[in-house]
Amino acid sequence: MAPKKHTRFDLQKMKESKQTAVWITAYDYWTANFAEQAGMDMILVGDSLGMCVYGYSGTVPVTMDQCIWHSEAVRRGAPNTFVIGDMPFLSYQVSVPEAVRNAGRFHKEAGVDAIKLEGGTRVCPQIRAIADGGMLVMGHIGLTPQSSGQQGGFKAQGRTAAAAGEVIADARAIEEAGAYALLVEAVPPEVCGIIRRKLTIPVYSIGAGWEADGQLMICSDVLGIFQAFTPKFVKKYENLGQKTVEAFKQYAQDARSGAFPQEEHAYKMVEGELHKLEKSLEQ
Ligand code: KIV
Questions:
Q1: Which of 3-7, 93-97, 246-250 has the weakest average pLDDT?
Q2: Which SS3 state, helix, strand or coil, does residue 122 take?
Q3: pLDDT for 3
Q4: Given 19, 35, 73, 108, which is the most exposed site by the fewest CB atoms within 10 A?
Q5: Ligand 1, pocket residues at CB < 6 Å
Q6: 107 pLDDT exceeds 80?
Q7: How far is the CA of 179 from the centre of ligand 1 (A)?
Q8: Residue 163 CA from chain centroid, whole number
Q9: Where are the alpha helices (DSSP H) in 78-156?
């Protein structure tokens, strides 16, 4: 039987019953489908697709159209999983009305269940307006890749009392603004734990330790496909990059040596038709 898609209330209940929600990014039909088969609670169509799919060095170049196309594919691959669309750089920073319109595009064109956007207090007007527009918004604080220039690179956040205090203030403001959930990236576990206890909404971690209501990982990291760099918080469960190179090499070797294709890979002519063809070509 197909799994039943979670609602925000199911996710809220999971927090209250201390059941860890597990989610992963996906950018295409097949990965989404495998994630659904694996029983993921949620899927994020992250703007990390800029690095994992398009080979950019960061997420800043990613456009709304790219996010919509990939979200559409993920929706088709995982019709019974809660899907979150990630608002790319400049889709919500410029103005509140633009933020609402772009959040709406994710829902109208890609059928997502929620959207996520990066930033703390400074994006609260956008969070409030999108929530007032009837949509589910997830906040994202700590390391925020779209503003990694301001953060001095892809660096852990909240490691001093003052810095942690700012992250916690952002978390409170986001809940107050109407977000239904919060993602905390690359902060020490203790800081994530404090946020989780202070907030009533689910608080999820990517690289923020075990004191969270759920864990997110990037699919290309879990599978060992992304090779540019490996953040400290990543655990690789497979080495598909290496396996893919091996499979391609084997195919090339077989094709070059004549070991592929064989009888079982070829279509047969209808009985007697080859003879007829050869005869007709003699004339
Ligand atoms: O784009 C993404 O995958 C994300 C994660 C890094 C949290 O936002």
A1: 3-7
A2: helix
A3: 76
A4: 108
A5: 25, 44, 46-48, 86, 140, 183, 185, 206, 216, 218
A6: yes
A7: 17
A8: 27
A9: 96-110, 124-132
- Give the integer Cα–Cα distance in Å for 205 and 210: 8
Amino acid at 169: A
Per-residue pLDDT, averaged over 234-241, amounts to 97
Q: For residues 122 and 105, what is the distance between their CA atoms, to the nearest angstrom? A: 22
Taking only the tens place, the pLDDT of each residue in 54-90 is 999 999 999 999 999 999 999 999 999 999 999 999 9
Atom number, ligand 1, closest to the C-alpha of residue 145: 6
Q: Whose CA is nearest to atom 3 of ligand 1?
A: 46
- Cα dihedral 77→78→79→84 (10° resolution): -120
β-bridge mates for residue 215, sequence order: 22, 205
Is-catalytic flag, 109? no
Q: How close is the Cα of 216 to the center of ligand 1, in Å?
A: 9
What is the model's pLDDT at position 283?
Answer: 81
262 pLDDT above the threshold of 90: yes
pLDDT tens by residue, 163-174: 999 999 999 999
Q: Residue range 169-186: average pLDDT?
A: 98
Q: Which residue has the tokens 């209940």?
A: 13
Question: Distance (Å, rounded) from C-alpha 97 to C-alpha 100?
Answer: 5
Q: What angle do CA 204, 208, 211 make, to 5 degrees?
A: 65
Q: Say what the pTM is.
A: 0.95
Mean pLDDT score across all residues of the chain: 97
Q: How far is the CA of 254 from the centre of ligand 1 (A)?
A: 39
Helix, strand, coil percent values for the chain (each to nearest 5)? 45, 15, 40
Using the atom order of ligand 1, give the atom closest to the CA of residue 116.
Answer: 8
Distance 275 CA to ligand 1 centre (A): 61
Choice among 72, 175, 185, 211 that is catalytic? 185
Residues 224 and 235 sit within 8 Å (Cβ to Cβ) = no
